[in-house]
Every structure is written in C-alpha cells, then in structure tokens.
Amino acid sequence: MWSPTEEEKYGVVICSFRGTVPQGLVLELGETVQILEKCEGWYRGVSIKKPSVKGIFPANYIHLKKAIVSNRGQYETVVPLEDSVVTEVTATLQEWAVLWKQLYVKHKVDLFYKLRHVMNELIDLRRQLLSGHLTQDQVREVKRHLTVRLDWGNEHLGLDLVPRKDFEVVDSDQISVSDLYKMHLSSRHSVQQSTSQVDTIRQRHGEACRMPVPHHFFLSLKSFTYNTIGEDTDVFFSLYDVREGKQISERFMVRLNKNGGPRNPEKIDRMCALFTDLSSKDMKRDLYIVAHVIRIGRMLLNDSKKGPPHLHYRRPYGCAVLSIMDVLQSLSEIKEEKDFVLKVYTCTNENEWCQIHENIIRKSSTKYTAPSSNYGLIISLQLLRGDMEQIRRENPMIFNRGVSVTRKLGFPDVIMPGDIRNDLYLTLEKGDFERGGKSVQKNIEVTMYVLYADGEILKDCISLGSGEPSRSAYHSFVLYHNNSPRWGEIIKLPIPIDRFRGSHLRFEFRHCSTKDKGEKKLFGFAFTPLMRDDGTTLSDDIHELYVYKCDENSTFNNHALYLGLPCCKEDYNGCPNIPSSLIFQRSTKETFSVSTQLSSTKLTQNVDLLALLKWKAYPDRVMDILGRLRHVSGEEIVKFLQDILDTLFVVLDDNTEKYGLLVFQSLVFIINLLRDSKYFHFRPVMDTYIQKHFAGALAYKELIRCLKWYMDRSAELVRQDHIQEAMRALEYLFKFIVQSRILYSRATCGMEEEQFRSSIQELFQSIRFVLSLDSRSSETLIFTQAALLNSFPAIFDELLQMFTVQEVAEFVRGTLGSMPSTVHIGQSMDVVKLQSIARTVDSRLFSFSESRRILLPVVLHHIHLHLRQQKELLICSGILSSIFSIIKTSSLEGDVVEEVEMMVESLLDVLLQTLLTIMSKSQSQEAVRGQRCPQCTAEITGEYVSCLLSLLRQMSDTHFQHLLDNFQSKDELKEFLLKIFCVFRNLMKMSVFPRDWMVMRLLTSNIIVTTVQYLSSALHKNFTETDFDFKVWNSYFSLAVLFINQPSLQLENATPPKRKKILDKYGDMRVMMAYELFSMWQNLGEHKIHFIPGMIGPFLGVTLVPQPEVRNIMIPIFHDMMDWEQRKNGNFKQVEAELIDKLDSLVSEGKGDENYRELFSLLLLEKIEQETWRETGISFVTSVTRLMERLLDYRDCMKGDETENKKIGCTVNLMNFYKSEINKEEMYIRYIHKLCDMHLQAENYTEAAFTLLLYCELLQWEDRPLREFLHYPSQSEWQRKEGLCRKIIHYFNKGKSWEFGIPLCRELAIQYESLYDYQSLSWIRKMEATYYDNIMEQQRLEPEFFRVGFYGRKFPFFLRNKEYVCRGHDYERLEAFQQRMLSEFPQAIAMQHPNHPDDSILQCDAQYLQIYAVTPIPDNIDVLQMDRVPDRIKSFYRVNNIRKFRYDRPFHKGPKDKENEFKSLWIERTTLTLTHSLPGISRWFEVERRELVEVSPLENAIQVVENKNQELRTLISQYQHKQMHGNINLLSMCLNGVIDAAVNGGIARYQEAFFDKDYITKHPGDAEKITQLKELMQEQVHVLGVGLAVHEKFVHPEMRPLHKKLIDQFQMMRSSLYHELPGLDKLSPACSGSSTPRSNVLVSHGPMSPESIKLVHRHSPLNMLGSVRHSSSSLSSHTSSETGNLVILTDSSVGETAEDMYHMQASPSTSSLSSTHSAPSQMINSAPSSARGSPSLPDKYRHSREMMMLLPAHRDRPSSAMYPAAIMENGQPPNFQRALIQQMIGPCKPCSDPNLSVAEKAVPAAPSSWSLDSGSREALPFLSAHAGSVLAPPVPPRSLPHGHYSLHFDAFHHQLSDAPPALPARTLRKSPLHPIPASPTSPQSGLDGSNSTLSGSASSGVSSLSESNFGHSSEPPPRTDTMDSVPSQAWNTDEDLETPYLPVRYSLSEPDVLESLKSQPCRSHSAPTGVIPQDTMDPPALPPKPYHSRLPNMENEEGMMIEDDDKHRPLHRKVSQPVSAGKEEQARVAWEHGISEQ
Predict the structure, then answer these.
(1) Residue 1754 three-state SS
(2) Over the stretch 1062-1094, which tens digit does the pLDDT of each residue have?
(3) What pTM value is reported for the model?
C-alpha cells in the first residue's frame, strides 16, 4: 500500500533512473525530488525541476535530506534544512551549468574556462562546508569565498545581483527598502572589489575615524650564495630610513656557517623574520632593507700570520641594500612571497664601516667594492596587512616556520592596552682612545655586561637581534688599527622590570693584539646606571661616558668601588668632590659614546608624571603639578592611565574647592587624548576603569558644577578652546558623573536623588542655552555648539541608567528643539546638526517606541526643513533610511501605525518634490546642490527612491485613506497625484536601479502597483464626471503602460526557476496592472474620446507584451476606441491611422509575434460582428492583420543574418502594401528610403535610382514649403525634387543606365530654362551629352534573367508559393545564380525539372526552389528593327524595360524520326508577364501571368527561317549603307552559316520534313503554313543572292576562295530547292560564279592523315578553344539557346568521324552571335566562374578573362571565322600571325561585355606602340591587310572621339591557303613568369606552350567544330606556359633587330599630324621586323566602325599543327627576310589612296 511519508520528504538523486517501469519518473543524477508517498522500497513524488509530473522511483536511488514541511497535505512545500549558502550554491551551479555550455557554443572560450575553474572551486568549498569539520572562523571564511565567487559568476554571466547580509541571502520582506538598497550597493561593491564583503553598511555620519591598518614585512633568507669568505658569518637585517638617516627597526640576526648554511641545523628553511607595525606613513618613507655581514674569524682574512687561528674576532665584512620603494608595487599586487637577490658590497676603508649602507644607497662607489659576480643574499619578501591577531589567523604557515618577530624601535601608531613591553635599545656610537705609546693604532674590542645592584651579571639580558637567543655578554666587532672606532651597532636590552632599578651597564675596552699569543689586553672601562636618582629612566639621548684606566689585573668584584664615581659629565657636575685617590683614574683624553632609546610601557623618563603620581611628597606644588600634566606626552599618559586617574580623583576628594577646576581640566585633557587614533584603543581601558576601579563617589557633584559653569560662560568668552574641549569630552564626563552617582547611591541608599535630578535638569537647560545662542556673529561659538552637538548623542545610554526612556526622550527633544530651525545658520552647522540627529536616530534610545513617539516629530521637522530647501540631501537620506529601517524592524514585532502616520504627513509630499528635483537635475547632468560628499546623483536618487518606497510600503489602507481625506481641495489632490505618477514614471524610465538588481526592481514594481491600486479609486472618484481632468488621467495611463512594459517584468525572458520564484512571490504584476488599467478605461465613459488617438500607440505597446492574459484584457479596448470614434465622427480614421503608424514602429522594435496577429484578428472580429459598422471594421482589422504579417516578415529578415535579396524583397513587399492597400504616404516614403539604402549597400545603383524615383514622382515642381523629414532639411518642394532628381541621375550614371537618366536631365533642363538658371542648365545639358557619349562608348553587359519559384510553406509570407523573375548580376550564369539562391535559403531543395509543382509540394512544410534561365522579350521592337541604329544602342533595349520573358522547352510528340528529328520536334513556349518591368525598384518582380503555348515543328521552322532572313537583311543593309566599314567577316560568317549548314543539314532538312508528300497528306491544315515556309525559303534565297553580291563587292582578295566556295554551295542549294520552288533559277550576277578569285594565291591542298587529326586534338588551338556546334539556321530551333540550361538539344545529327571535322560548315543559328537577342545572356555568363573576370587577377594576367569574353565559351559559342592560315611569303610564315597573337595577349582593359568589339575592349595597360596617348581610352584598330600581307606597323592614331577606333579580328579572315606549310614558324620562348593554368575556354590555351612551333595546313572553307567531335575530354592538358608568360622580346628575332617601324597614315589629309604623333619604339610588344603591307582592296578612310555587338568567334585555324616528331625537337629560329622597298611604298600608297582591287 502506498502511504504518505512523514519524515522522508526531500532527497537528492544519487543514481540516474530511466523510468523503465509503468508510472516511472525519469531522474538524472543530482536532481532533487520531493517525496509524497512510499511503498516497499519505492517512493512516489515529483522532481523539483518538473513539479507537475508525478511518478515512482526506487528508494535506494535517493539520498534523503532533512527538510521543513509547511502546509502538509496536497499542496505541501518542502524546504531543505541546510545552510542557506549551501542551498544557494546548489541552485546557482545548476543554473550556471546551462549557461556555461552556451559559452562554449558562442566561442567565449576565455570566460568558459574561467567559469569552469570557479565552478570547481564552488563545488570544493561547498563540500568543505557540508563536511561539518570546520571551526566557526573557517566556516565564515569559506562562506566569504563562496559568496565572492557566486557574485563574480553572476555578474559575468549577466545574472541578477544577490543582496546579502552576513553571507546569507536576505529576505526582502524582512527588511526596509532602504536597507535592501544599501545591501545591493554593498553587494555590488564587493563584486567589484572581489575582496571580502563589507559586512557593515558603509558608515556615514562621521563616526570616529577608522583604525589605521598596520603593515608587516615578512623576510626570509633563502641562501648566501656569494659566501667565499670561508668563515662563519652573522648577517643582520634591519629597516633603514634614508631621509632620517637612522634605523627604524630592531635587527634580525642570522648566524651562518662557512658554507653559507645556518650554523644551527634546525634553522634550515626557518631563517625568517616579520618586521611588524609599519604604519601607512612608514610605507611612504624612503625605506631600505639593509643587511650587514660580520664575519667571525681571524683578524685579516687573507693573512694567516695575523693572530693565532684559535682566536676569533667579530670583523666587518660587507653590506647589501634593497629599496622597499622599488619593490612595493610588485609586492602589493601579489599575495605570496617574491624573491630578490642582494649583492654584498665590501668596505674599502674600515673607518667608514658605520656608513657603508649609506654609501651604497648614495652609490658613492669609491667607498666600497662591488662583488665579482651577481650572486649574494637571496631573500624573499611578502607584504602583509592587518593586526597581529589577523596575521596569525590568516598566515599560520609563517608562524609554523618559527618566524622571528622584529619590532619597530619605539611604539607603533596604535598602542594596544595589553601590549606590555620593556626594551632599552642601546647604540654603540664611537670611541676616542690614546695610542698608548705604540707605533700603530689599536684594534679595540668593547665588551658589555648588564649588572644588578648587587654586582651580579644579569643573564640573557643582551640581544644582538631577533632570531637568536639573548646572551649575558656582548662583544663588539673590531676595527683594524683604529683608535677612534665608529661602531653604530644597535643592541637590545630586554631587562626585566623588577631588575631595572639599580642596574647598570659596564663597558670594558681591550686591545686585540695580532702577535703570536694574540691576547686581548684590558686598558679601560666605562659604565652608566639605567635609572637616575629621581626615579626616571636614562633619557633618549647620546651619552658621553668617562673612560677609566685599568688593566688585566684590575678587579671589578667590588662594583661599589666605581659606582661612586661620576659616569659622565652631568654626573660629575652633580657630585664635584670626588676623592682623587681612588683605584680607577679617569683618562681625560679618552671618551666613549653610547645612545639609548627606551620603549617601555612600565618605565617613564618624565619627571612631571612622576611628580603627579607622588603628589603627596610635594603638597605645596599640587597646583603646578596638575597644570604641567598637559605637557606630558600621550604615550606616557596611556602607559599609566589607571594610576593617573586614581591620583586625580584622590586629589579631587582631598580638596574639592581648591583643586576641582584643575582636576576637571586634567580629566578633560586625558579624555580628549583618547580620541586620538593612536590611543583610540585605550578607550576600553578607560571604560574598564570606570566600571571596575573608579571609586570617586562624590565626584559627580563637582563634575556637574564645573560642566555647567563652562557652559554658562560660553556666551561671554571670546576664547572658548577649553569650553570646546569640555564639550568634546562630554561622553566620558557623563560616564564618570553617572558611575559616581551610582556609587554614591549605593553607599547612601539613594540619598540626594532629587538634588541629582534637578542638577541634571539644570545642566540640560545650560546645554539648551548654548545651542539656542545665535552663532552667526561668532565663529568660536559655532565650534562650541558643533562640539556639543557631536558629543551629545553619546550621553543617552548613560542617562538611561538613571532615568526612564520617556524622561531621556524629553531631555533630548527639548535639546534638539532648542536648535535654531532655520536652515541658513551656516552650512557647516547644518551638517553638524543633522549628524547629531542622525546619531540620535542610530542610538539605542530611538529603538524604543515610547521614545520614538516623542522624538520623531522634532527629527522630521528638521529633515522636512532641509528637504524643502534641497540642502544636505545625502545626510538627510541617511537619517531617513535609518528611521525606516527601525520602523520596519519594529513593525515586525509591534504596531507602528502612529509613527507611519507622522511620517506620511511630514514627509510624503516633500519626498516626492525632492525626487522630482533630483531626477530633473540628474537628467540635465547638474550636480546636486549641498552635496558635501562627492557621491554621484544616481546614488542620491537611489537613496531617496528607497526612502519613498519604504514609506509607501509601510502605508496601510487607513494611511492612504487619511492621506486622501486630508487634501483640502481637488487641486491639491490633483497636484499630489501628478507628482506621484510622475515620480513612478521616472522610476521606470530612468532605471534608477541597475539591470541586475532584480530583487530591488521587483519590489519597486510591487510597491508601485499596490500604491496605484489605492490611488486609482481616488482618481476615479474625483476626476471622472464633471471634474474630468485629462492631465491626471493621461498621467495615470502613461504610468500603467510604462509599468507593463518594464523589462524586469517580462518573465518570458527569465529562466524557468527564476520565473517560478517571481510568480510565487508577486504573481504576474503586468496582469494586475492590466486589469487595473482596463477597469479605469471602462470608468472613463464618454471621456474616452479624449484619449483617441493619443493612447492608441501606448495601448498597442501593452497588447504586444507576450502575455496572453494581458493581450486578452487589452485588445478589446481598440474595439471600444473604434466604437467611440465611430459615434463621434462617423468613422474611425484616426484609430486606423494611429494604429498602423504605431504598429510599424513597435514591430520593428522587436515586439509582436504570429500568435498576437491571430489573437488580434480573432478578438476584434468577434467584437465587431455585433456592430453596425461591421464591414468597414472587418476590412480594417483584416488589413491590419495583413500589415502585421508583412511587418513580422520584414523584422525577421532584418534581424536575421538574411541576405540582401531577402531584405530587399521584404521591404518592397511592405512598401507596396503601404502604398496600395493602406495608403500611408509617410510610411511609404520611409520604406522607400530604407529600400534605397539597401540597394546602395548592395551596389544596385539602377534599382536605388528607381526606388528614389518613387518619392520624386510624389513631389511637384512647386514652391510649397516642406517640413524637415528623415534626413531632408525643411525646404521647398521644388528644392527637394531638384535634389532628388540630381541624386537619381547620379545613381543611374553609376548603374550605367544612362537611357533612364536622360529624361530626368531633360526634365531638370526644362525647369532650369524656365527659371533662367543658365549655369545649372549648362551643367545638366553637358551631363546629358556625356550620357549620350557614354552610351556609345562605354561597355555594358547584358544581364541574364532567371525565373525562380519558391514553393512550400516554410518560405516567408511574401515569397510563399510565388514565382519571380530576377535580373542576374554581371557575369552571373545559371550555376552561380542557383548557388547564390541556395546559400540564401540553406534549407531549400533545388527542383531538377521545369514542370509546375503539384499541391503536395505547395502545401508541405519545406522549401523548394525551381530555377531556370529565361529570355527577355523586348517591348521596343521598333528600335531593334531599325537598320542604322548601332548595336550598342539596341543592346540596351534588348534587356531593359522588359516585362515579358520567354522560356522554351523542346519535346518530341509522337515517335521520333531518326532520319529527321525536326518532323516531331515541338516547342513548349512559356511566356511570363511580370507585375513591373525590369529593371525597377528591385532586381526581382513577381510573375503576374503565365501563358503556355505549344509551337508545332512547322511553326518553329517558319520562325527560325523568318528570324534568319531578318538577321541577314539587317546585316546586308548595314554593309550597303557603309555602317560596317571594310570588314566583311560578319557577313562571310553569316552567309557561310546559311548556305553551307554543315551541322544539321541546313534548310534541306526542313524540305525533307515538311515538303514531303506524306507530311502534306497527313497535315492538310498546314498547307498555308507550308506555303509560308516555301515563301520564306524563297525569300531567303533572294536575300542570300543580294548578300553574295554585297560580299563580292567587299570581299578581301585573300578570302576569294571562300567566296567562290559560297557561290558553289549556293548554286547547289538553289538547285536542290529548284524543283520545289520555281523562280529560283534567276540568280544575281554576283552569284553566278563569273568573278573568279585570284588564282595566284590559291594552292590546292592535300588530304590530312589520321595522325594529324590526333594532333589537332592534342595540340592545336582548336582543341583549346573548342567550339560549340549550333544547329543550322534552317534546321535548328529558333530558341535553341534560349531554352536555358535546363534543356539540352539533341545532337544526333552531329558527325562523328574524323573527316566530319573538315567537312562541317559554319552555321550560326538565331542563337549565334549575330542573332537579334537570344544569345548574349549565355555568352556573357557561359564561362565557368574561375575564368570570369575576377577583381583579384593582376592586370598582367587579366587577358585570359578578357579574351575569353571575346570568344564565346565552349558551351554555346557559335562557329565562325578561324585564325588565318599560315600563308607563305618568300618562304616565311606570315608575321601577322605573331602580331595577331601578340595583340590578343596584349594588356587589355578588363573586358566585361562580349557585345563590344575587340577594339573597344583592348586598351593597353602600358604606353606602347599599340597604345594611344596615356590619357585616352581608345584602342588601335587592327589594320586590314591584303592576302599574304602582315599587319601594318602601328603608329599613334590621331585623337578621335570615343569609339571611332575598334580592333577587329576581321582583318585576318582572308582566303585560306590550300598549301600545307613547309617551314616552321618562330619559336616561342619560355617565360620567366609563373604560368597560369588555362581554363577550357581561356584564349591563352590557343597557343599550347608544349608546342615550340606553329605550323598550319589549311582546309577549304571555315570549319565549325562541335564539342562532340572530340572523342576525348574537352578539358585541355594543364598549361605549362601561357601566352601571357611570353616576354615582349620573345616575338623579336634572336638578334632583336631594331628595324624602325614604317609609318602608316590613314589618309592623305593629315600626314603631318601623324608624322608628329609617331610613337617611341615599342616597349612592351615588339612586332616582327620586315613588316610589309601588300596591296589592299578599297579601304575606308577611317578605321572601321563597330557595327554589331556580337563578336565573330575567333576560332583558330584548324591547320595550325606540327608533325609528331617535331614536337620534342628544338627548332631553328628563323629571321624574317627583308622585303623590297617597292612593296613598302606600294602598301603605303594602297593604304592612303584606297586603291581598288580591280
């Protein structure tokens, strides 16, 4: 049976339990459980972590702990019975564990490891605490360590500060708010200090100053490594003050053996001393540690002859010093010992031994010798602080090592009463002795003994230094050959006090001979007694003693013999008549000096003190003796305190009349002496004396009389020093008075009680009299009053011994009341007065409620006055917090209603006023007036806030009731409410308490919410109906809103344990306040309208708080507002506008969520259902809900690490919503600018311009003034629009969209013209002109467009299940775009098919992306069809202002015809229409409409042929109109592609497919279309005829064979069509074959071997430039290249034999370079990203990218003209090949736009013969030359407008030679530059570096190669050297012939100009020598003009090959042969005159 547990209530899990049984509770190791029931070894209960889940668990898994159970039963609570610190540590560690792991995840590694260390320490300390083996002191210490670490961790983890008292967490309910505030302050302080916590709250009210902290130096000698002395040594350490020039401590002595170790083996590791009692003042002195080394051995170290070896002398050796100033800093920082090495310096001259340390410190290096090495004394030092008891407690290890306590000479700063000491320090100063008839000076040794009166030598009374035992005799060290020795050695004489009187010192002087015997001969002595005859001790001074002669035989047995003699001069003067016949004769010339210093607590050197103690011996001198007591030093007085006091009271009793006043003064002097910090510790001695030893039973009468007499005189006297002293001594005087009265009372059984009482009454009257005097005139009086006030509170405790509490309170009230209540008596007096009040409040008297009732009114009165004046705020706050603290404590025990009532009446209003003033000042950063302490305003604010909160917390219902009833008028009440609401608001706004003071903040909130509940009823009662007051209500609402929004109340952000704790203690205060707010709103009635729309924003903020209950309470208020506005205005426009405005800013601040959106909609729609204005309401709520959707999306995008695209998409979406659905212009404009900024950030300049244009269009050209808005100043509408236009134009320019900028330029121009602003007009017109130039000259890329579908519910709202078209970035191809999209949506899955997705995908919780390329369908067809419009202009219209896009997907319907696939090849054509045209305000626009049509094979054929005809017509017309000057290649290619369609069989395949009888019978409906196709073919034949005629006219002589071949093919084609299409038999003359090409150039060619084929594959540039097949114009789909990368056309008809390679014909289709619009996107983007122009490429390597741009990529590059074959000229390979290649690899401008001709891209990087002048950007054209000729030598061209020169490869599309080459071409040299690996499409691969020779064989016609022709991979072998790596001279002959270039002129009209422009010989690219132009055909007068943006593809001549065996063989380099000048001239003339070929 399960039974409830009685004792087993609480336990800890000691083994994890998986809960594998039914009802099992899963438990982790370390969890705590609460046990409810038990049953046979099982418990049932809950885990504290999850209190809602109950379950069972094994009893043996639980370790039980004792606990207190309260509220037994179902809802019992269990608190473990353990130390609260342990509980806190446990809870804190559990909380930290979670955060600690997060630190690692967030890469805060440093804190992670620190925290781990601290957590381990906490666990260890907790274990110690739980062990129960610690003493109380240790427990305290462990707790201190624990709390310091807890606070440190909490602070670093951003957790709350825990207020503590005595290491235990305080309960905020048990203490006043003021105390809680102070505890927070001290906790924070201890966290910052991370040192011991200050237990007592900071003292404020001028208590006696704190005890000075003594410092101690711990010194330990580790070793003496420099001990090469070889003898025993004594080392003496002492502290030396350089400025004073004296030792300030005793000496610490270490005795070492000759090896440097301790002489006593027990001392190993124990040679340490503690130099004690150094004051802070000492630490600032220039102190040194000085070590003197004395050796013990023979007289001279190196001379063994001097003296016998058995005699040892103390001899000076060396000295070492260490400056404490230098090491203090490092010692203060570390807590352990630190090592130092002290060099030991030896003395150069022994006579100066006594000054050696000074010489070393002063660095007088001549007087000492430095050691040969750096070693010496190794010591360690440690600095300790605190009194000796503390040091012993904290550092037991030091004392375990047997440390020698080495004291200061003299007393420390603080003399402790029990400190008994009796030390006489004697210094051997110097001696002067006679030579004694010797030739050399003596070696003198002094021996000293201490003798008692009876002549006995006192044992162990001489100490050479601490650390060694005392001895009976002292031997000084010996200075060699010195009759005037200076020793300076200090000896301590610890003589017992009872042996001191009568003892004397005897000094014996011996000469130490160094002869063989080495005896010590006595030659004199001196002596001195220790006490004088008058009983005083030897004074602290130098004593020059007489030296008496004697010898070894003299006996000192009878000391009386010499004690009668004078010992010194003073003595001699005292007894002049000494018989001269004594044994001992004084040596008059010899003297000996010693100095003494007494440090004794028992002996005095003061005569006056002795006289007082023995006053009865001098009865007539008593007055004088008492008077002289003032001059005795304090040290002497405290030593004999008890004796002196006894004496004084005996004297007083002896004759009260005579001595009364003097005794009183003496007593006052002694009492005040004890106020000094040095003697402060003697106060307990005084107290003990009064309690136990004082016996003056009659003294009180005289003391009262004297005191009163002093006070009464204070009004008259000018000098009041003695009065002030008496006032300061008031406390002890009263102690004496009271104790005296008690003694008297005991003795007499309470006689004279009345007289005593009345005398005290009179005394208080005198005190009041002193305080009531006006002190403004007299400064001395102020000091008297101040002294009295300071001492006054100290007498209360004494009075309480004799009087009742009420009586004492009355005394005090009268006294405090007598003080002037005005505040202006002087600031210093104010402070004293308040300090006195403060100490009154802190006194024991005030803790009695009887006395408080009497004293409170007067205390509050004074505070009230100061607060009114805003004076001494800090002291006032201290007094108030003490009062509140006392009242809080009392309220726990008894009733304090009356006192609280007093405080409310007196203080509440003035506190509020003070707080408002302080807060306004702190906001304006002024310091608070009267702030004597340098505390910051924040602290004062905190103090007063805590006082106010303390008061409000003490107030009960009755107090509030009284308060509200006591207001005389409603105005007063209103003022009060406004004040208190304002203070509360400021409390929340200013965050008076730091963020981590959670306890304080929650308590504050609790007090505020309670107070507001009391006040709201008063507000409702007094200010609702007729007396409605908007200001008060508004103030109330603002407060409520601020309250609910407080960060500290947002429990959602708190950890679960913290949340539970708060909810248990306070509940959710937001809900309480929300209910209060709602009920007050309902109480407003018709006045609600006043708060519309003002309160909408604030209330909206409240509803956005993520607390469901608050939302449920508050959201209906909006319905109420709508209803009231509807009633008043007939609509709710204001509510609508305000709600939308505020919603935007609040959501962007991070408020609101999806739940809120749903709740908002649900609650309001439910309410609106019943209303008459239902429809408008519902539409409003719906639009707000939709706005919220967008705002939430926008916020999520902005705050996440979302990509620019998402952010832009979101912003556009939101912006459009504001414009179209809500029509909020201002919000719309704000988002326009946000969007613009995003575009600028992403460098989308065109889009940024379009975005700004939206705002510009809203403005008119008017002078209406506009207010300041966003970043715009206040200005007129005209100015703003003008500024916008200029900015937009600038952005269009940056985005190279000049066509869009030009209309704006015109618009501005019209404005400027109308205003006659010609300067601006000129500027804008020039700008417009520049834009036109830019259009013609600057290169632009045609972007690619991609369609993206976003499917699935995981996408943001604005993308979900929609499709968009996006304008790609420059160079961006489909793969790159797809990659970008997938990185923007990392969760998305890319769909691999183009089909429309089904519902399962649309509705799934995932993200699917469907991406493919689409083709733009331009709107502006007219421009594109005009013949004469340059392609640069057309290219813009092809890709801009596009709203429709097309996507074609080829597919086969029915069976596929293997013979001719065109029969079944259908096209599925999708046309997408966008919402806006691209480019626009975004790079994306949504697809508005999609149309899908299927194009039949026949329709497709019609379109293809039609497009090709149009293309041919355009091209031919351009040649006819001379738009394409001189370069016929484009036409050649185009004709060749149509006539000789090698890839897919040309239009012949269409004939087969559609003119077949079968087809016609099966498709009778297609008859019309077949006819149409026939007509188009017919038209094509006609157009081709015209084209060939034009070709005939312009064809290059070199290209004649091609022309001939074209005519042959054309005739075949025509004949094949002849029988089907009659009417084709008439051909134009140009096509008839009559004009034959020049036969002298043509040579028949031989067939190629299969080996050559392989070679082509492996080495030829053909392979590297692998071309892409394109279907022939008559067969391929019109859109083959437009279908994007998802569709790959079938290529079954591609030839696969080796021969096919040579018989295929070029066949550009519509997707080839000359097509109208389909190819560019793929051309631009076809290169793999590695080959695309990347900015990181250095310029010199950049041509790979540029050339790749010139040549379309391998995938869809159309076949076209090849490199020219190697035509032999005089047996030489033609040099133009080299020139061409050189030109190709020349330093080109980064070429980004394949639509530009080469000329516009090739801009040389360095000035060379190819470049124009350095400033110009035009490039030289290639010069067209005749067959067999080479490039004409380049010369600088004349400067022409941009774009007039274009480089064309067309010059080399000459007729191909039929002869195989006989000679190898020039060798390429290897380059020193590093090679660049070639990409498959890189042009530099065109010349494979493995070829050392280029040779060629030609095939007829221009071949087109498909990538499928190569059996191997299209990747070329890695390059070893590239074209780029060939140095410039590699193209020269070996001899580098410097043949000057021939000048070439463009026309006869400007020879001089060109002559003068001739450039220097080429620096970077030399052309080959012997360059000779041949006859040319009719050349144009200017270089050819660019015609079409699509470049002809430069395929390499397939014949450029080498023989297999040539591959590895070094080849001979050839030198070009010079050619006759006749030919040069001929060429020049041909060039200049344009000689026709005919």
Answers:
(1) coil
(2) 988 899 999 999 999 999 999 888 888 888 888
(3) 0.60
